[in-house]
Amino acid sequence: MDSFIIVALALCSLMAPVYGDKGTSKARSCSDIRQFYSGKGFSLDGVPQSEISGEHLRICPQGYTCCTSDMEDNLATLSRREMEGLLKEAGRSLQTLLNGQFKAFDGYFLELLNRSSISLQETFTPTWGPVYTQNSQVFSDLYRDLRHYYRGSSINLEEVLNEFWARLLEKLFYQANKQYYIGGDYLDCVSKQIDTLRPFGDIPRVTKMTVTHTFVAARYFVQGLVISGEVVRKVSQVQLSQECMRAMMKMTYCPHCRGMATARPCANYCSNVMKGCLANQADLNTEWKHLAETMMQVADRFDGPTGVDSVVLSLPSRISEAMSAIMNNIEIINKKVSTHIGKHEQLCCPNHVSDVTVRLKDMQSYWVSLPMLLCSDRVATGTGAEEKCWNGMNRARYLPEVMGDGLASQINNPEVEIDITKPDITIRQQIMQLKIMTHRLKNALNGQDVDFQDSSDDISGSGSGMCADGVCSSSPRLFGPATNRPSYPLPPENKEVKALANQNLPCITIYLLSLLILLLRR
């Protein structure tokens, strides 16, 4: 009996390998992954011909595998490189969109400025003659400064407009009194009385208000487009963490190591991996949305009767109307100018603002939609996909819940180990840039340039200095024709005169008003 048992055991031991070959103990071929691995540009040196034990693996499940440690490292690095490439590609697409909107609006606004400048030249030359041609620099300087301000130069827009009206008053005052010699200091004194005299009526104040609102809004609107593109560029260049690389490797290439090359990730599994990898990027969402919303509010202000087209193209007629007020030819001049300007307004450029608004609305959820975007073409789909997808370990349903968006929501992310107390510095800097830009745009909605806050609430459209800041004698420096008598130099600056200037102001003002009335009657 004992001998029978021994013989039976011996036969079983001899037959065991035969039954094992038909089961799971036979090592599978690694031909598929060898072909795949070689196609990715890696050498086949050391790549196994058939499955080996996977105790050496540090990322993929440690069952039988076709991947060595070197292969796992190489594929992990590849997965990060490919992911970063996808992020940069997505970023470039958004950058291209933003750059296109910037070019469209920038070209549109500069074209309005150019046409307004040309319109002024074409209408003022026949209408105002030498009054314009001999003082054209005043107008060209205005348009130059407006253009520079819009393009971001460190120019105080209110000071530009104040200086323009003050210089224009000096030129017109001098032009109307060419038969007299008028000293430069006296002209300067006249220009400083512009607030009191109001020779241009209410036009400088109204023009300053509309021009300031329009140009401040346009300046920061295009800056918003530029800053948005820069934020996308810089964030797209942020390197992914080692933990993200491991998670991407496990999701993307571990199926190949397990001989499941056709297995695609479960949808929720992919979401958790991407949300973990892009946790810092998702934190941009709040400020990104705030910026987009504020820019849309600014864009809405560009339409209507006080919109960009109306303000910029009507600037020549506004200036001409102001000049007419002081030269007492308002009816004839206005008829000529408004007729010509009206033709130009009908040639208005196509409105690009509405298109920009649509694009801004579309990009609002960009940062939190990235995980879904990057998972869209890689997850398992179709009937029964949830049961047959790759869940990080095998083909089976993925059980963990999907995490929320942002760094703080990843504290329990089962796929990407992440320290929520250590946010990415580069991305935090970009969040601050978005906050600053939004703050500027919100001020721009009220016509306020935060870089140049004017302490005065009075939008007067003129220089704020008075005669107390310069030399004004108690009697005017108005002499007879220069050809009949020599010119006399103005007295040197006297500090006592400055001290008495405020006391003499009412008298001087009455005199200058009388002088202007006399001038207008000429």
TrEMBL record:
GO terms under cellular component: cell surface; extracellular region; plasma membrane; side of membrane; synapse
Localization, UniProt: Cell membrane; Secreted, Extracellular space
Topology in membrane: Lipid-anchor; GPI-anchor
The keyword Lipoprotein is annotated on this UniProt entry: yes
Superkingdom: Eukaryota
Keywords for this protein: Cell membrane, Disulfide bond, Glycoprotein, GPI-anchor, Heparan sulfate, Lipoprotein, Membrane, Proteoglycan, Secreted, Signal
Keyword Signal: yes
Secretion signal, residue range per the UniProt entry: 1-20
Family of the protein in this entry: Belongs to the glypican family.
Role: Cell surface proteoglycan.
Record's protein name: Glypican-1
Native source species: Mastacembelus armatus (zig-zag eel)
